[in-house]
Amino acid sequence: MSRKPILAANWKMHKTVGEALTFVEALLPLVRGAEGVESVIAPPFTALDRVGEALAGSGVKLRGDINPEELASVLKELERLGVSPCSHTSE
Fold first, then answer.
1. Quick check: pTM over 0.70?
2. What three-state secondary structure class fits 25?
3. Distance from C-alpha of 39 to C-alpha of 58, rounded to nearest angstrom
4. In this predicted model, what pLDDT tens digit does every residue of 6-42 receive, in sequence order?
5. 39 beta partners
6. Is the separation of the CB atoms in 6 and 40 below 8 Å?
7. Three-state SS for 73?
8. Is 71 within 8 Å of 50 (Cβ atoms)?
């Protein structure tokens, strides 16, 4: 069984509530006709409520967290692709 590709906008630590709403207003027309993908937006915690209202009826999902099973799946896929989800630096 193949998974549906995910089109995601994730900016959890950047944008005020107003900036998040402006972003959503600009993004929605661009993803309205997207077929064969799951569209997801993950704004900052402080904007979840207002962004959720702006997304109502759009078909775009709102995410504010990720459960352990989903995280494990994402990390496994990143590992398969050879992508590190973290970067480490030493000083």
1. no
2. helix
3. 10
4. 888 887 678 899 999 999 999 999 888 888 888 888 8
5. 7
6. yes
7. helix
8. no
